[in-house]
């Protein structure tokens, strides 16, 4: 038996796991001989421990990376679970199609996108990734295979979308893509100076813009609290004025990416660099509104241009905190959270604010729900940070919100269970041989999976 | 348009090479043992852009099937320009050093069957006076080591045979490329402890292989640093070598 050290994207944990290869989707599911549990591991982009299984095994699900069929007339794509969104885009964009929903990185697998029911900037119109999954095959440790769709094995379909890889292995999936005329985005960036302004802009933009998202400054208290840049965009129309494409931006599919070559001994993100960066970023555009065409790559995946950017947080890694709170108290709650963060002096470059829309998620454990989501990175500074997180948890919970498991590496069982009341019903679908660090933590020692505790 | 026959096409390295050819819009014909997996790989290559994908279930140790495979592939694609011989197994050295029939079987799979296929492909391409034969040997064939000398000696046979064939076919315009991968992170090696700079990904190795075959290189070490490592290992004097654990 060979063990290999695996890390998640936050780089906080370094855990040895037995690694099990997957050469064929037709082959039986490999399982560890010693009765240990397994968990599918795609491309390792989840931040905390929802993609790790310390003490157990990981299935190298990224090795199932074959296309099965793509129909350029209907835009229906069927592929194995380990295919990266990046690979899909290279296939479909030249043929006039795009992903129906994409997260902020293209380096995730299709299986991972389903298991976390990922969302993107178009949530208010398109919902999350699972809303566009027509069907998939689920392979369980008992050797059973089920093709799940909204009409066939609908219960397994709902459990597996957002099911964190715990219901079995997604060997293949079929997704409905969306038409685009070209790789360009017609986007606008608008400066806002308060949270009230953000909510007004957001509501006003939802009808006319397919994509909306904001960067928000959380380094300062007082007057500057809640300022930021609001970004809204649509896919560019068929005939575009190429002179509007800013110089230096890619116009072809050729890619250039730089890599963070080493992990610096200390986090490069600290209060000083944060305040300077945020001030510069806020003022990066001369006018309050800037409009232009951009290639989809820098628009959707600005960070993918810097490979292994997660190293900048130093050897101790970082945490991401992403919450969603219902619309009724969103403004007050968001303000309270920003104040708490700014007051703590900790914070991040990447504070992202977005309003989720009405489309209902299909997964039992899906994270998105109508309301406002806030996502922030924090360098791992130990107990001080954990105290801040506890405070934020209390604010989110009081507002009736929840946290995103894909980003989480720390919440206790009570917080998770309050945010995801369906967890107990979901646990009936957990494969008895599947588990994760996250799942053991949030279900506690006494409330195991269905097989042990029906 | 390149017409490519790939033997052992469901191995991770061969499949990664096939993707490079498919993305160029070439025609490919796949041969391997498992039908379900052959079909999966064929579907993938077709989606990625291969102009034509054919496949045939094939056991390389069934020597009487070799000629038929070449004929079928040539007919299906309307020609044959490139042959990649990539089938093989990772032998269990401990078993092979005690179990003679097993050791000979391993040498057949990794050595003599490759020799037989190179012979037939060499004849066909030699007669047409153009083409390229790529054969996956291994750094393990450069010097027999206690940890894998049964596998290594089969690969040494392949390397020496390819060297002679290359010299002969060079004169008629056919290139023979000996490919020597180091450690490659594939499902076949998932059970081995890995990590660190010596392990390469199949797509990286495939770029080296297809690039080397494009240029008609003689010997392709992939990743390239293995040339240096093996140069050193080959030159360790025997009296020192016998004391090493390698």
Structural commentary:
The complex is a heterodimer of chains A (454) and B (246). Chain A has helices spanning 85-92, 110-115, 123-126, 154-160, 195-205, 271-282, 296-300, 330-344, 383-398, 413-419, 423-427, 437-443, and strands at 3-7, 14-20, 38-41, 57-60, 67-71, 76-80, 97-98, 133-139, 145-148, 169-176, 178-179, 184-192, 211-216, 228-235, 258-259, 289-295, 306-307, 318-325, 352-356, 371-379, 402-403. With 454 residues, chain A is of the alpha+beta class. Among the domains of chain A are: 3-62, no CATH class; 64-179, Uridine Diphospho-n-acetylenolpyruvylglucosamine Reductase, domain 3 (2-Layer Sandwich), CATH 3.30.465. In chain A, helix 8 packs antiparallel against helix 9 (383-398). The longest helix of chain A has 16 residues, at 383-398. Chain A is globular. With 246 residues, chain B is an alpha/beta fold. Chain B has one domain (3-241): Rossmann fold, CATH 3.40.50. Chain B contains nine helices and nine strands. In chain B, the strands form two sheets. Chain B has a seven-stranded parallel beta sheet, sandwiched between helices. A two-stranded parallel sheet of chain B has the order 7-8.
Count of helical regions of chain A: 12
Q: What would CATH call the homologous superfamily of chain B?
A: NAD(P)-binding Rossmann-like Domain
The number of helices of chain B is: 9
Please name the CATH topology of the domain at 64-179 in chain A: Uridine Diphospho-n-acetylenolpyruvylglucosamine Reductase, domain 3
- Structural class by sheet pairing and helices of chain A: alpha+beta
Main beta-sheet strand count, sense and barrel state of chain B: 7 strands, parallel
Mean pLDDT figure of chain B: 95
> From N to C, what is the helix and strand string of chain B?
EHEHEHEHHEHEEEHEHH
Strand fraction band of chain B? 15-25%
Q: Mind summarizing the main beta sheet of chain A?
A: 8 strands, antiparallel
Low-confidence stretches of chain A: 446-454
What's the total number of strands of chain A? Answer: 21
CATH topology of chain B: Rossmann fold
CATH class placement of chain B: Alpha Beta
Distance between the termini of chain A: 32 Å
**Low-pLDDT stretches of chain B:** none
Q: In the CATH classification, which architecture of the domain at 64-179 in chain A applies?
A: 2-Layer Sandwich
**What count of domains describes the coordinates of chain B?**
1
What is the name of the CATH architecture of chain B? 3-Layer(aba) Sandwich
């Amino acid at each position: 038996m060979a063990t290999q050290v695996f890390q998640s994207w936050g780089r906080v944990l370094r855990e040895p796991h037995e690694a099990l290869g997957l050469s064929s989707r037709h082959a039986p599911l490999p399982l560890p001989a010693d009765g240990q549990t397994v968990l599918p591991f795609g491309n390792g982009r989840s931040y905390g421990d929802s993609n790790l299984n310390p003490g157990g095994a990981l299935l190298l699900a990224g090795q199932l990376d074959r296309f099965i069929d793509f129909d350029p007339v209907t835009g229906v794509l069927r592929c194995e679970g380990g295919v990266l969104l990046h690979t899909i885009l290279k296939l479909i964009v030249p043929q006039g199609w795009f992903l129906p929903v994409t997260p902020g990185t293209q380096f995730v697998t299709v299986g991972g996108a389903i298991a976390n029911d990922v969302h993107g900037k178009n949530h208010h119109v398109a919902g999350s990734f699972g809303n566009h999954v027509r069907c998939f095959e689920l392979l369980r440790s008992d050797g059973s295979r089920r093709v799940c769709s909204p009409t066939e094995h609908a219960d397994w379909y709902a459990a597996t979308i957002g099911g964190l890889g715990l219901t079995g292995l997604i060997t293949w999936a079929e997704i409905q893509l969306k038409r685009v005329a070209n790789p360009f985005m017609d986007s606008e960036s608008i400066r806002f100076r308060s949270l009230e302004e953000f909510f007004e802009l957001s509501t006003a933009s939802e009808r006319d813009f397919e994509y909306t998202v904001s960067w928000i400054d959380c380094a300062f208290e007082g007057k500057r609290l809640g300022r930021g840049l609001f970004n809204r965009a649509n896919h560019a129309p068929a005939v575009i004025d190429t002179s509007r494409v800013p110089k230096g931006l890619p116009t072809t599919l050729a890619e250039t990416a730089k890599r963070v070559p080493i992990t610096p001994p200390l986090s490069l993100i600290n209060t000083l660099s944060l305040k300077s960066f945020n001030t510069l970023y806020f003022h990066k555009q001369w006018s309050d509104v800037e409009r232009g065409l951009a290639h989809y790559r820098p628009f959707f995946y600005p960070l993918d241009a810097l490979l292994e950017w997660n190293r900048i947080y130093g050897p101790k890694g970082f945490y991401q905190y992403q919450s969603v709170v219902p619309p009724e108290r969103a403004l007050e709650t968001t303000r309270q959270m920003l104040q708490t963060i700014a007051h703590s002096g900790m914070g991040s470059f990447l504070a992202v604010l977005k309003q989720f829309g009405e489309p209902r998620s299909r997964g039992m454990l899906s994270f998105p729900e109508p309301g406002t989501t806030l996502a922030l990175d924090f360098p791992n500074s130990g107990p001080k940070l954990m105290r801040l997180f506890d405070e934020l948890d209390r604010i989110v919970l009081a507002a009736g919100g929840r946290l995103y498991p894909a980003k989480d590496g720390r919440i206790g069982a009570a917080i998770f269970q309050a945010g995801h009341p369906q967890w107990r019903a979901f646990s009936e679908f957990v494969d008895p041989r599947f588990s994760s660090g996250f799942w053991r933590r949030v279900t506690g020692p006494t409330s195991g999976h269905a097989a042990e505790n029906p | 348009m390149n017409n490519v026959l790939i033997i052992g096409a469901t191995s991770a390295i061969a499949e990664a090479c096939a993707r490079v050819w498919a993305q160029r819009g070439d025609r490919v014909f796949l041969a391997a043992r498992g039908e379900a997996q052959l079909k999966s790989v064929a579907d993938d290559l077709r989606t990625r852009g291969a102009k034509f994908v054919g496949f045939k279930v094939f056991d390389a140790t069934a020597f009487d099937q070799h000629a038929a495979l070449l004929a079928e592939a040539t007919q299906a694609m309307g020609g044959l320009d490139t042959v990649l011989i990539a089938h093989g197994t990772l032998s269990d050295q401990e078993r092979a050093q005690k179990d003679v029939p097993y050791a000979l079987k391993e040498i057949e799979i990794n050595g003599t069957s490759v020799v037989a296929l190179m012979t037939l492909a060499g004849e066909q391409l030699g007669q047409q006076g153009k083409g390229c034969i790529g054969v996956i040997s291994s750094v393990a064939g450069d010097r027999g080591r206690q940890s894998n000398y049964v596998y290594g000696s089969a690969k040494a046979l392949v390397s020496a045979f390819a060297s002679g064939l290359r010299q002969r076919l060079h004169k008629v315009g056919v290139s023979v490329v000996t490919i020597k991968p180091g450690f490659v992170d594939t499902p076949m090696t998932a059970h081995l402890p890995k990590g660190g700079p010596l392990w390469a990904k199949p797509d990286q190795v495939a770029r080296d292989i297809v690039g080397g075959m494009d240029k008609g290189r003689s010997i392709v070490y992939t990743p390239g640093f293995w040339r240096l490592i093996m140069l050193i290992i080959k030159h360790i004097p025997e009296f020192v070598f016998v004391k090493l654990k390698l």
